[in-house]
């Protein structure tokens, strides 16, 4: 039986665009519930300028109280060495560094050009390696850019080749605005694997145009064994019109469970977390499984 790793990014990527601010206590409870449900890699915080992402301004406070359970790894988003130092001081186990596939997305979203982002990644990689902290590079807008339109595979391959030089533990291909299709996922995954041999690949898919789940399954068919998910399917890039959220943890689990793919995550526990989260956010989350129920029905 095949097994894959799900990375819960709801506490960071999922919450960052929510208009209702969650309390620090609620964020810690969300993370505690995810750990109890069996999720073992959780993106818990963002170490960027607090005024840029008010929802995540309490990164240090959250990290100070997350449950330290053997086998559970907490990640923080960092964009530069200053963010890395904050993340290390807060006790993260891994860092996620973003490099955009296009110049315009990089400047508008990361406030630096692609070359500067690549330089920052190289510096972060060296510092993180000396501390034993795991590193992931996410290539954002790898399947399309809200400003530049289509992104060629050659552009993404070029970025992947350069980030691989600093020996990341993982490269994540992100459909940041939810425009990719399964055939594109297959081509890009194979191409990046060829220029970054031996580096594990990870998939990050938004469901903006209802292709997120098909893209995630296509990535699995190509040998990607790690997928980002968000409880309730919350999230979505603020730079795309009408973002609809990331692939939902529970909806993804339903497909994987029915396919006989092991994740170690309790699907019913995740459904309960989503119901709790809906109450805290004051709206119904996008995930469908909480409404439709599992099949065959379980208790």
UniProtKB/TrEMBL annotation:
The keyword Calcium does not apply. GO terms for molecular function: lyase activity. Gene3D superfamilies: Aldolase class I. Keywords: Lyase, Metal-binding. InterPro entries: Aldolase_TIM (IPR013785), HMGL (IPR043594), PYR_CT (IPR000891). Residues 4-271 form the Pyruvate carboxyltransferase domain. Pfam families: HMGL-like. It comes from the Bacteria. NCBIfam families: PRK05692.1 (NF004283). Belongs to the HMG-CoA lyase family. This is Hydroxymethylglutaryl-CoA lyase. It comes from Allokutzneria oryzae.
């Amino acid at each position: 039986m095949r097994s894959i790793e799900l990375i819960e990014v709801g506490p960071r990527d999922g919450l960052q665009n929510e208009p209702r601010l969650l309390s620090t206590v609620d964020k810690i409870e969300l993370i505690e519930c995810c750990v109890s449900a069996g999720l073992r890699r959780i993106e818990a915080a963002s170490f960027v300028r607090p005024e840029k992402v008010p929802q995540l301004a309490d990164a240090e406070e959250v990290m100070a109280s997350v449950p330290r359970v053997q086998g559970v790894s907490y990640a923080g988003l960092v964009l530069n060495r200053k963010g890395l130092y904050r993340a290390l001081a807060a006790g993260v186990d891994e860092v996620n560094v973003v490099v955009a596939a296009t110049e315009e997305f990089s400047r508008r979203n990361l406030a630096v050009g692609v070359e500067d982002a690549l330089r920052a990644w190289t510096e972060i990689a060296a510092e993180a390696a000396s501390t034993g902290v795991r590193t992931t590079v996410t290539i954002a807008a790898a399947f399309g850019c809200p400003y530049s339109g289509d992104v060629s595979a050659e552009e993404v391959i070029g970025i992947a080749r350069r980030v691989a030089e600093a020996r990341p533990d993982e490269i994540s291909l992100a459909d940041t605005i939810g425009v990719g299709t399964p055939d594109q996922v297959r081509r890009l995954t194979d191409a990046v694997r060829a220029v970054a041999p031996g580096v594990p690949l990870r998939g990050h898919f938004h469901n903006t145009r209802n292709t997120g789940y098909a893209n995630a399954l296509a990535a699995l068919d190509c040998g990607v064994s790690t997928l980002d998910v968000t409880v309730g399917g919350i999230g979505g890039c603020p730079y795309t019109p009408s973002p609809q959220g990331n692939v939902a943890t529970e909806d993804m689990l339903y497909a994987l469970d029915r396919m006989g793919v092991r994740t170690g995550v309790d699907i019913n526990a995740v459904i309960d977390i989503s119901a709790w989260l809906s109450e805290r956010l004051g709206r119904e989350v996008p995930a469908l499984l909480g409404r439709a129920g599992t099949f065959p029905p379980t208790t």
